[in-house]
Recover the amino acids of this structure.
């Protein structure tokens, strides 16, 4: 839950929320808010257009790691013409930052391939809570995977995706123009969100905010009233009740899940 300034809103109780599946209201049986360790994959755009933003991106990741839980589990994937594992889990934050210091921008943008690689890597993650953070300045222009394929993949995975999009006021290519919608569609499908910037100097500030948000989330649990076990898509909606706050708030939540026949 965030306010108009995109800041996390603490202190809400179970009575502040209403939860629906398939349009039918569900009983919230479990409610908590905790800072538990999380497995995080960072996807950093190193395409040519990031050349003048790479220093801000490095500082942003330093802020992201600085506000982390010491027990968090990290890996970093960089992508340009193709995604590459820069640092896998188990390496210290200092070692990751050392490798980032040597990173050089150049090439095209294989964003969708990087997301695929990140989600697949998450299958071996240490913790059940899992998230990806994308830092990029434009749309995809050389991936093997298509947007529809990646959207289905992230919908079916248990990985929350956030993105910081650095978009110019004037788009030079159709891919850059489509970049904001691409990132927003993918992140919203997972219960995360995309923060768009026009100035790369704000990257560290926003990265710190997202880091804190990942570690301050409300957890709502319920048993579906629909007893049918099938593979159909179950649509979820979470609303804030009118008495929850006097100011306008935004709720970010996972949009649904594929029911299991087992």
């Amino acid at each position: 839950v965030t306010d108009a300034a995109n800041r996390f809103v603490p202190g809400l109780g179970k009575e502040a929320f209403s939860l629906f599946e398939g349009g039918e209201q569900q009983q919230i049986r479990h409610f908590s808010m905790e800072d538990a360790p999380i497995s995080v994959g960072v996807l950093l755009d190193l395409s040519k257009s990031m050349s003048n933003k790479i220093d801000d991106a490095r500082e942003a990741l330093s802020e992201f790691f600085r506000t982390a839980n010491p027990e968090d589990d990290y890996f970093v994937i960089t992508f340009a013409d193709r995604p590459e594992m820069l640092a896998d889990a188990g390496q210290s934050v200092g070692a990751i930052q050392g490798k980032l210091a040597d990173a050089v921008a150049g090439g095209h943008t294989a964003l969708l391939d990087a997301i695929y690689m990140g989600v697949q890597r998450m299958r071996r993650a240490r913790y059940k809570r899992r998230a990806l953070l994308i830092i990029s300045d434009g749309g995809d222009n050389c991936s093997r995977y298509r947007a529809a394929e990646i959207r289905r993949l992230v919908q079916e995975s248990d990985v929350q995706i956030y993105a910081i999009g650095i978009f110019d006021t004037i788009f030079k290519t159709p891919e850059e123009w489509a970049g904001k919608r691409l990132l927003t569609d993918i992140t919203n499908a997972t219960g995360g969100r995309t923060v768009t910037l026009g100035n790369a100097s704000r990257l560290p500030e926003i990265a710190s905010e997202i880091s804190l948000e990942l570690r301050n989330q409300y957890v709502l649990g319920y048993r579906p009233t629909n007893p049918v076990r099938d593979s159909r898509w179950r649509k979820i909606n979470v609303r804030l009740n009118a008495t929850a706050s006097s100011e306008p708030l935004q709720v970010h939540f996972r949009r649904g899940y594929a029911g299991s026949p087992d």
About this structure: The mean pLDDT is 88. The CA atoms of residues 35 and 215 lie 5 Å apart.
